[in-house]
């Protein structure tokens, strides 16, 4: 395990529990501090229907199965003394707020730092620990609305949508784990306590990917369009197979392998084989005449898909080099053979289970071993006697004599061979926090994101894309062609220089290039290498190439966004690209911490599919234990009603609200001035409101449609009802909470001038979390990297350039 000598105290409820759970997966000892009678997290749905007591919550079971539990009465002197004794011997505390469990109990920062002057304290909140929204009531729906993703999900003809299972607090919890280790590393640098504030709203904004700054960059927002995405052109990703749906992008770059198959099927004639598909997109988008149109391609592809099952399309596609990603359900996931071969699933002992139950295994592997532990969901206070009587633990202490400066990763060297989303976002964290990160890229095989919107001022250019820019701040760009021997020589030299080497190629590619872990460690024995791919190596689907929207379909997320009477729309863009970096970055920091203590490097492998499934862990248990198959529900919720996004005055303006319980329903009636339609006793219960949800939606819309979204939000928040305007990127740029948190950073780019960049999803008190510099132009730092970092002479550089390896 990477961090097995770290102790973490978990005072969270459901709003932050994923953070300490992830650190426990990496080896930390995590102690859940609960009030007498147990944490409220034990009351979060879904529940195992036949389990009584404090172990029935499947949400709790999924994200607490590797923790110890102790009950402490913080209203008593003995309980406070016991807590502060645990604080003195721990490195990190997680809490949920505001104001936080500890603050609510009257335990101050001074109390905590008196017990532990090098404490790392992480508070997970909806909007931030302070600021104009900090005390607003919040729900999963309102956070998704205010964070932005709802504005881009669903069909235009209906209201914007969220993912139909809880996601906001799971994203925020994973980000909290990352933030805690950034803070812990900074504590090692400064010797000072770290106060960290994680915003769930900001975590959801990061799921927008290329839309985070779209309006300010290009002058307009992207719009929701169901299963269509705006790449170089707007395309519908969803295809109908004979037994469901698959995701496939019908563009020239991916069409060539399909042509012989469709000719053999009699769908198209042999003239299609004469088309130069490698240049088709460029010619078609430039207005040149082509023998067939995109519509022709779409019709042919849809006919092919209609003849085969999802599995048949997937496996035949792998054979011929085409990508058909099945839109899987939770049930389908449990039968994916690739996960069996990779030994992903783990047994899960649960009371009353009549058949074996499996849970998601650890999110990644280290040196071939999955980061995991046997499941043991703790009863409340199950470790209480042991922990209350243990001798004081000696915690780790900082060693600031060896450190220099305020940036936690100053002096760290990272070679970033990755592209698109997951790898670059991972490396960005280290760059923004002080590491020297060299991004390796080439114009001969351009990073796809450099050719995707939003472009500065709407003008295409490989250095003008903020899709690329958002994920590559604070880095240096080295233009290097890895298809040449001279280029590979430089790459191997760079790998020997680096502390961390990251790639996102298909499994096995780095080994074939002579850049695999074993090859690098021959000259660089303490190196940490990281490889991330769609599905991971060693399985029957490992060679499948694709993007995050393919991984989202395979991992079950696409099925969870949409309306019950329509096909699945899926989350915006490449959803798993927003999930995986949080887990991978956390693991890298843990690996660097172990290297600092032991001198040992390691190899980390992360499959986007397996990381993504961590955020569906309760739903996987719910299906196996209760038979409930999570699916798309629009914006409705099984446990709360009404809930939805309601049309407001203006063009496509919406406000989301959640009535969380019966008291909240009474508050809504009061806010609406006690309308007659809401007074009936049949609406006084959850069951009644679920039954009459359509009618309630219509009546609420009558009220909202004559008011602005801002006015509706204000009235509802004033009544204590979780609510939020469905914000687009133009709204986020002026969101009062983001202005307070200084979320967007505007930096000078070498080619396009001042550009906005979304900041990190957490703040560390007294520290500017970056980004520190704008994203680089392609090859902007090539000479500097070769000469200053790698020590190459002018003659060395000229020789490599003469072989056309620096382009």
Oligomeric grouping of the chains: single chain
**Share of helix, binned:** 25-40%
- What is the count of DSSP helices, taking H or I runs of 4+ residues? 34
Low-confidence stretches: none
Distance between the termini: 41 Å
CATH-level-4 superfamily name of the domain at 406-614 and 764-802: Crotonobetainyl-coa:carnitine coa-transferase, domain 1
The structural class is alpha/beta
CATH architecture of the domain at 406-614 and 764-802: 3-Layer(aba) Sandwich
CATH top level of the domain at 406-614 and 764-802?
Alpha Beta
How does the major sheet shape up?
Answer: 8 strands, mixed
Shape: globular
Radius of gyration: 26 Å
Write the layout of secondary structure elements.
Layout (H helix, E strand, L loop, with lengths): L6 E5 L6 H8 L3 E6 L23 H6 L4 E4 L5 H12 L3 E5 L4 H4 L4 H7 L4 E6 L14 H8 L20 H23 L3 E6 H6 L8 H5 L9 E3 L3 E3 L1 E4 L2 E4 L4 H4 L3 H6 L15 H6 L8 H13 L3 H11 L4 E2 L3 H4 L3 H5 L4 E2 L10 E2 L5 E2 L2 E2 L13 H6 L23 E4 L5 H11 L3 E6 L24 H5 L5 E4 L5 H13 L2 E4 L5 H4 L4 H5 L6 E6 L14 H7 L21 H23 L3 E6 H6 L3 H10 L16 E5 L6 E5 L3 H10 L14 H6 L1 H12 L4 H10 L4 E3 L3 H4 L3 H6 L2 E6 L3 E6 L3 E3 L17 H8 L4 H9 L5
Parallel strand pairs: 1-2, 1-4, 2-3, 4-5, 5-6, 16-17, 16-19, 17-18, 19-20, 20-21
Antiparallel strand pairs: 6-27, 7-8, 9-10, 10-11, 12-13, 14-15, 14-21, 22-23, 23-24, 25-26
Question: What would you say this structure looks like, in words?
Answer:
- This is CoA transferase.
- GO terms for molecular function: CoA-transferase activity.
- It comes from marine metagenome.
- Keywords: Transferase.
- The structure is a single chain.
- By secondary structure, this protein is an alpha/beta fold.
- Among the domains are: 250-322, no CATH class; 406-614 and 764-802, 3-Layer(aba) Sandwich (Rossmann fold); 636-729, 2-Layer Sandwich (formyl-coa transferase, domain 3).
- It has 34 helices and 27 strands.
- The strands form seven sheets. It has an eight-stranded mixed beta sheet with strand order 15-14-21-20-19-16-17-18, with helices on both faces.
- Strand 14 (365-366) and strand 15 (369-370) form a beta hairpin.
- The longest helix has 23 residues, at 168-190.
